Fold this protein.
Amino acid sequence: MSTMKSNQPHKEIEARPRSGWVMLPTVIVMLLGGIGLLIFAIVQLDEGQTSFGVVCLITAIVILITGIIFCSGFFTLQPNQARVLILFGDYKGTVKQDGFHWTNPFNRKLLLSLRLRNMEGEKLKVNDKRGNPIEIAAVIVWRVQETGQAMFDVDNYENYVKVQSESAVRHLANSFAYDHGEENEVTLRSGVDEVSLALQKELQARLGKAGVVVEEARITHLAYAPEIAQAMLRRQQAEAVIAARQKIVHGAVSMVDMALRELKEKQVVNLDDERKAAMVSNLLVVLCGEAEVSPVVNTGTLYT
């Protein structure tokens, strides 16, 4: 039974401490009363009232000690801060309301920040879905929501967030290709929003065990590893040249087709198949060539 209990998540319990402003006058009265009674006890002992003086002296000491102990029960909270109360190893609850409070002075009052935090991860060298080595880094915005889980379900929640975030980024890089995916495939470069959402969901699944909420996760650095960066750059350049050539050829064919159709419809000149072939060849050279074309004046005919 004890093993099963220890494996259960520690859900947050709301604690309701007393107002510090209500308890402050009580503690001040105790301290002042104890000091006054102590002075009175000393006077009684000096006058020979030994029994009564000893009783007053003991009472004064008890009141002073109690007042001093009660002073340790005061604590303050700023907005988006929390105090986890522990009494002799037993979790008593969490105080989240900002202000001046007082609680059992024997409670341990552990301070936690509930504010948003940024964690910028280091550059990690991992393999993408296709096995290409890449460098990747991410920034994560997170905050503590369940203080009970953050304090008692993990050893150190800040270190837990750091280690699990690095593991999630590595797994993300292994799940997506860097670029040049198949049709409709999301890649690390092209699907920024989809990849960020996937990273946030995986982080939330991992960090939820520590009572942490992931508000946002974004990739801040993405590049090929240095050993293949030059080769990948040449591949990208070659693919860009091929894509550009395809557009140029497609445009040139469209222009040649338009030119032949216009000549025929307006009856500017009648061309047989051989003349059409020569015209198509010349136009494609002009339109697809990288260098400027020098015109050549033909004084003869295509048949001589």
